[in-house]
Structures are given as C-alpha cells and as structure tokens.
Design a protein that fits this description.
Elements (H helix, E strand, L loop, with lengths): L2 H4 L2 H10 L17 H8 L45 H4 L6 H15 L6 H6 L3 H7 L12 E11 L2 E12 L1 H8 L8 E3 L2 H10 L15 E12 L3 E12 L4 H4 L8 E15 L4 E17 L13 E9 L11
Antiparallel strand pairs: 1-2, 1-8, 3-4, 4-5, 5-6, 6-7, 7-8
Helix pairs in contact: 2-7
C-alpha cells in the first residue's frame, strides 16, 4: 500500500485485523518483470475506468485459495472524484484517497465472510478505539536489522507530484566505521566518508519519483567529511560538512520505466554535527541536512508539463539496530 493510504489510521486497523499485508518487490512494474507475459496477465486485472497500468505500484487482495481479485491504484480516487487527487498533499490526505481501498476491501471481506465485520462501520467512522490508538502512535523510522547505518530522508516534488518522500538505510559495517573514524583523536582532523559508502549514500539521496534509478559513478560527485572540533576524555565532537551532486547524463540512469524517467540536476552542501564515543571509537550521533540546494528537472520533449515547482530536501542521521529484549533462560 502507498504512503498516503497507509497514513490513514482506519486502513491500518483493517489491515492489522483482517488481512495479511505483504509486498512483492520488483514485480509490480512491468519494466522490472522478467517475463512480459506476467505484465500482460497483471494488466488484464486492471479496471480500465481507473487506471491503464502504465507502471508503478498497484494493490490487490488475494483470497486464501490464491485467487487474486481486482488490481487497483489505491491513491487514485474513485470514479466519482478527481483521478488526479493523489498528486497533491491535500488530496493524499483527504477522505477521498481511501475510497478505492474501502471498496475493494469490502468486496474481499464479503467474498470470504458473506458479511462485513461488526467493527466495519465504527472503524470508518473513526470511533473505534483502535483507530484512536493508531492515530496517536509516533512514526517508526526504519532501523538496520543489525549494526549501524546512515538513515537518509528525502522529500522532493517531481513533475505532477507536489511532494514525494522516502527513507533509506546505508549500512556501515564495523570495519568501514573504523576506517572512516581512524585519526579522530586530534582537533582539526578531517574524516572523509570512504567513496564506496558515499556513493551508496548518494544513491539513497536520489530524488523520488523514478523506478529503479541506477546513476553511473561518473554522475555522482561530492563528499561527506567529519571535522573534529573538540577532543574530550569520553567523547569527540565536531561538525559535518560536505557537498553532493547527482546529474545523470543518460536517461537509463534515471529509471527503468521510460515514460516516468526525467533527467535532472541536483547539487548542494551538507551541514550538521556529530559525536564519537572515544572509548569505543564509534559514532554515537550524526545529524546533517542539505543546504544551498540546486534542483531542476530537465524534461524531454513530449513529457507532461509541470504542475508543481521542483523542490528537494534531504536529511541524514545515524541509526542503530533496535535493542533486542533480554530473554531469561529457563532451566
């Protein structure tokens, strides 16, 4: 399901209670399918009055028997509403955005149970207690399954979308961290993120809106540097600085789905703070954000016109795996 839809507490409650959410990665866009017959099969499930299946993620309900019900685009409103409501933040947060999900969820539950759950009306009215509980829950940002990582948040407009957001992790192994932070014992030391990690960071900073972007190494430039300012008994602190630039020259670098691929130029600076635990030699905190950003879309001839001005923001922070709860041994 899509971010705009999953942010609705009513949908979250229904998915928790009555469905088993899952995602089939790389099989939801026809350009990524290995066998073109799969794309043709999926295309036959699409309701033509709502979507022409030109790529991108789609949703469907499957019965326990394995039968797949209609494929639909949940962000798009029903035929009674505007088909472009999901292009704006206001549209994605409106009640209209869940109408298509509500229709297909009702059909799936009735196929299984012949009637809707008793809570159905209360959930959609927002009076169900679990809806209020979900609404009050703080967001849970991705964490590495183990070890540590740079967590990258991106927000950008893209062609007809006023705001696309994403969050990715760039894993940093203990050996990579030691190599990066070696020499952090004196003031003025400059600790550059090794190039392979920086390229992975830039990949995570890629503007959202493309399918399967693969920018070449020559299209990635810049650095992220920790500058040591204070060396104390237990900690080392300083500032984060650097530059970044992503400017693909070949359209194939931008995305696998050609009708959505649009060349762009992106450049800016990085600024923030960090702290290292001196005893372990490991990062405890790192926070940085992009500043002085130059972001422009370079649409090719025949592409749809802009509805929103291009914009781009990025933030980076240090993330650790969640601590596993201690389990008492029983003898």
């Amino acid at each position: 399901m899509r971010a705009g839809l999953l942010s609705d507490p009513r949908v979250v409650v229904l998915l928790r209670r009555y469905f088993i959410p899952c995602m089939i990665s790389a099989l939801n866009t026809k350009e990524l399918m290995h066998d073109p017959r799969d794309a043709a099969t999926l295309g036959r499930y699409v309701s033509r009055d709502l979507d022409d299946f030109d790529g991108g993620e789609r949703e469907a309900f499957l019965l326990p028997s394995g039968e797949m019900l209609g494929v639909f685009l949940s962000l798009r409103s029903s035929v009674e509403g505007s088909p472009f409501s999901h292009y704006t933040r206001a549209g994605r947060q409106s009640d209209d955005v869940v109408r298509t999900f509500r229709k297909h969820a009702r059909q799936a539950l009735r196929r299984l149970r012949s009637r809707l759950p008793a809570r159905w009306v209360a959930v959609w009215a927002g009076t169900d207690p679990e809806v209020a509980q979900v609404r009050a829950t703080e967001p849970r940002w991705p964490r590495p399954a183990s070890g540590e990582a740079l967590r990258v948040f991106v927000r950008n407009s893209y062609l007809m979308y006023d705001e696309l957001t994403g969050c990715k992790l760039v894993a940093v192994s203990p050996a990579q961290q030691r190599a990066w932070l070696s020499g952090a014992t004196v003031r003025g030391a400059r600790l550059a993120l090794p190039e392979p990690l920086f390229h992975a960071l830039l990949q995570a900073m890629h503007p959202r809106g493309m399918i399967g972007p693969r920018p070449a190494a020559d299209s990635l430039r810049g650095n992220l540097v920790l500058v040591v300012e204070q060396v104390e008994a237990e900690r080392i602190t300083g500032r984060v600085t650097g530059t970044f630039a992503i400017q693909p020259e070949d359209l194939a670098e931008v995305g696998r789905r050609r009708n959505a691929a649009c060349r762009f130029r992106l450049a800016g600076e990085l600024s923030g703070r960090f702290e290292i635990d001196r005893r372990s030699g490991r990062l405890t905190t790192l926070q940085a954000a992009g500043t002085g950003i130059d972001f422009a879309m370079l649409p090719r001839s025949g592409m749809q016109p802009y509805y929103f001005a291009p914009s781009y923001r990025v933030a980076i922070e240090w993330a650790r795996a969640a601590q596993q709860p201690h389990r008492r041994k029983h003898y």
